[in-house]
Amino acid sequence: MGPKKKVARKRKPEEDSKGSEVEEEIGGEERDGMEEKGREKIDQKKGKDKYIGAHVSISGGIWKAVEECLAIGGRSFALFLGSQRSWKRPALSSTAAEKFQKACAESGFDPVHILPHGSYLMNCGSPKQDVFEKSQALLVDEMSRCSALGLCHFNLHPGSSLGSITSEQCQEKIAQAINYAHQQTSSVVTVLENMCGQGSTVGGQFSELRGIIDRVRDQSRVGVCLDTCHAFAAGYDLSAEGGVKSVLDEFDQVVGLSYLRALHLNDSKGKLGCHLDRHEDIGQGQIGFPAFRDIVNEPRLDNIPLILETPGRPGYEYTEQIELLYSLCVD
C-alpha cells in the first residue's frame, strides 16, 4: 500500500499528556472536506459490523478527538480524558462536554464505540496506601468525566503488586477500587485491559482478569479489553493457524465472551511469551497479517471497538492501517 498525503501528524497515545505539543494547523475548509471524506470512508468500508479505529488526540479540546477519528477513516476511537502527567487535573468544563457530545452525535458515533483510556499513573493494585488512595480517587474522577461526556465505558490497566503482595491480594485491591468507584458513579462500565505479564503486573493471564471480576460486586459494570500485543507477549499464540479462534475460545472458557467489550489491535515487536509491551504496526511484527485477517473476519468481534495503538511509520500510519484492516474483511 503506497504512501498517502497526510493531513495531520498522527499523535502517539502517550503524547496526549504533553500540553505544549500542538498538532499541525488545518484550515476550516480543509477540515470540513476531511471530515466529509472520513464519513464517506466509514460508509463505504467493507466489514460493516467491524468498528475499527485508533487512539486519537484531545489536543485543542476533547471534541477534537472526533474530528481526528473522522480524518483517519475510523469508526471507533480511544482517547485520554486529561493529562497523563498529573494526579489532579482541571475539571472538565460543561462547554467542552457539550461540544464533545454534539460532535459525536453529528458524526454518528455511538458511545459504545468510544473507549476512554485511563491514566498510566493509576495503580489500583498498589500495596502502597498513598498510591492506592490516589489511584482510587483518579478512577472516580475518570469515570465521572465519562458520565459527563455521555460515555459508557472506561478502560484501565488493572495494576501491579510491585512484588510485595501476592497476585490474589493485588486482585482484591483492584476490585476494591472498582467497587468504590461504582458506588461514587453510575452506569459507566470499568473495562480491564489484559497485560503482557511484565514484572509484577496483574492481568496478563485470563485467570487473573477473572479473579478481579469475581471480586467486583456489580459484574454488569465490568468488562475486558483484549490487547493483541499484550496477549501474544503473555503467551497466547494468536499467530498460530487458528490461533485467534483458539485464544477467543480460551477467553470464553476462563472469563466469558459476555465480558469482552473491546480489542486493542497491535502487532508485537517481541516474540511469543516475551512479556514485553512493545507494540508494532499491523503485519510488521511477530503476530503477522493472517491473525489480523482472522480478527476482522471473526463474528464474535462484531460491533465492538477495535482500536489501533500502533507506532506508525511514514506512509503506514493509522489511516493506512485502518484501510488495510478493512480491506482484509470478507463480505
Automatic annotation (TrEMBL):
Compositionally biased intervals (Basic and acidic residues): 12-21, 28-46
UniProt cross-references to Gene3D superfamilies, sorted A to Z: Divalent-metal-dependent TIM barrel enzymes (3.20.20.150)
InterPro entries cross-referenced by the UniProt entry: AP_endonuc_2 (IPR001719), AP_endonuc_F2_Zn_BS (IPR018246), Xyl_isomerase-like_sf (IPR036237), Xyl_isomerase-like_TIM-brl (IPR013022)
Gene Ontology CC, one term: nucleus
Pfam families on file: AP_endonuc_2
GO biological-process terms attached to the record: base-excision repair
Superkingdom per UniProt: Eukaryota
Cofactor(s) it depends on: Zn(2+)
Domain (Xylose isomerase-like TIM barrel) ranges: 67-326
Keyword set, alphabetical order: DNA damage, DNA repair, Hydrolase, Metal-binding, Zinc
Biased segments, Basic residues type: 1-11
Region feature (Disordered): 1-46
GO molecular function terms noted in the UniProt entry: DNA binding; DNA-(apurinic or apyrimidinic site) endonuclease activity; phosphoric diester hydrolase activity; zinc ion binding
PANTHER family: APURINIC-APYRIMIDINIC ENDONUCLEASE, ENDONUCLEASE IV ENDODEOXYRIBONUCLEASE IV
Family statement: Belongs to the AP endonuclease 2 family.
Protein name as catalogued: Xylose isomerase-like TIM barrel domain-containing protein
Organism name: Aldrovandia affinis
